[in-house]
Amino acid sequence: MRRPTFLQQCGIFLTLGLTACLAAAASAQAAKPIRVGVIGLDTSHVVAFTKVLNDPDAPEDVANCRVVAAFPEGSPDIASSVSRVPGYTEQLKALGVEIVDSIPALLEKVDAVLLETNDGRPHLEQVLPVLAAGKPTFIDKPMAASLTDVAAIFMASERSGTPVFSSSSLRYSSGAQECRNGAIGKIVGADTFSPCSLEKTHPDLYWYGIHGVETLFTVMGPGCVSVSRVSSPGFEMAVGKWNDGRIGSFRGIREGKAGYGGTAFGTTEHRTIGKYEGYRPLVVEIVKFFRTGESPVADEETLELYAFMSAADESKREHGAPVSVQKLITAAKEEATEKLLDWHPKK
SUPFAM superfamilies, per this entry (predicted)? Predict the structure, then answer.
């Protein structure tokens, strides 16, 4: 075997050196401490997420990303919100988190933000100063309480150059991810279900049905063109038609045995999607997002997911008639543009 020439040897050394440098840079990025702030202390998610992130023995996939400060805010007109704030505030203090009295005070202390207020109505107002400050933000469900506000948040994110990411933890159940990634061939349809309690201040499916809808979109992907809905006191059924003729449905449960799951129909297999697997898989994705600044879910897919739920509400008002998803998205973007007409983040 011929020995490499001098120039070839130089090339090998340069390649090895570059590979080592890239590996070191990636390791340094992962190791760089990230200070996380929380807005809103009215959901159990804040305690669950903080326990994962602030664990002194946290594994590498969530290490060096620590909740350091929180602004405790709840919604006085939602009993399940305001009643939880004192207890969760004390639990976060016990986990070493500093409690501050305003969002501006929080932003001085952190590199990234978890927007956790259980009420979606104030999310747009809460997130605008965060985006203007350049802090990557995870927005917990519901992302907002209207499709217009969801569109406005994504618009503000693009305008400010600051990324946002929103998802239910159900997106990261192993069953849903396996189906999305080709385990049963091409997905030709899916039926999902979840609890679907209602909150009068929000569109029907935004409050809790979003978990099952998130599972549906995880498996099916974007491309829903219309939604029809059947509703009764104990149940909801929203059926979507995709642009390639596929059909996906969501069943919301308020009576009988609840739970999370569904069935995915593929070209090679039909498979049970699986159950809820806890918060940690989502927290891992949040940490990746904070480290890279890249959302694991396309903004347009999340916007379409909320448009599906808004179209289901409109279909209910129209006695089950199919409602165009794109028509609602177009209207929401127009209204969002007006809403943000005077908002210009400083560069």
Answer: NAD(P)-binding Rossmann-fold domains
User: Over the range 203-226, which residues count as b (16 or more CB within 10 Å of their CB) and which as e?
Assistant: bbbbbbbbbbbbbbbbbbbbbbbb
Predicted pLDDT of residue 30: 54
Instruction: Give per-10-residue mean pLDDT for the chain (347 aa).
Output: 53 50 48 92 93 95 97 77 85 96 97 95 97 98 97 98 97 96 98 95 95 98 98 97 98 95 97 91 98 97 98 97 98 98 85
Alpha-carbon 278 to chain mean position: 15
What is the amino acid identity at position 330? T
119 near 75, Cβ under 8 Å?
yes
Q: What is the third-level CATH fold of 34-169?
A: Rossmann fold (3.40.50)
pLDDT of residue 21: 46
* DSSP-assigned letters across all residues of 247-284: EEEEEEE-SSS---EEEEEESS-EEE------SHHHHH
Q: CB within 8 A of 50, min separation 6: which ones? A: 38, 67, 92, 95, 97
Question: Is residue 287 classed exposed, middle or buried when 0-12, 13-18 and 19+ CB atoms within 10 A define those classes?
Answer: buried
Sign of the alpha-carbon torsion through 159, 160, 163, 166 = negative
State which H helix or E strand residue 37 sits in: strand 34-39
Q: In which residue ranges of the chain is CATH 3.30.360.10 found? A: 170-277+296-328
For 201, other C-beta atoms within 10 Å of its C-beta total 15
Q: What is the pLDDT of residue 81?
A: 66
Is-contact 110 69, C-beta < 8 A? yes
Q: Give CB contacts under 8 A, 24+ apart, made by 83-88.
A: 84/41, 84/42, 84/43, 84/44, 84/118, 85/41, 85/42, 88/41, 88/42, 88/43, 88/44, 88/46, 88/47
What residue ranges of the chain are covered by domains with CATH 3.40.50.720? 34-169
Looking at the domain 170-277+296-328, which fold is it? Dihydrodipicolinate Reductase; domain 2 (3.30.360)
Question: What pairs with residue 262 in β-bridges?
Answer: 192
pTM of the model: 0.89
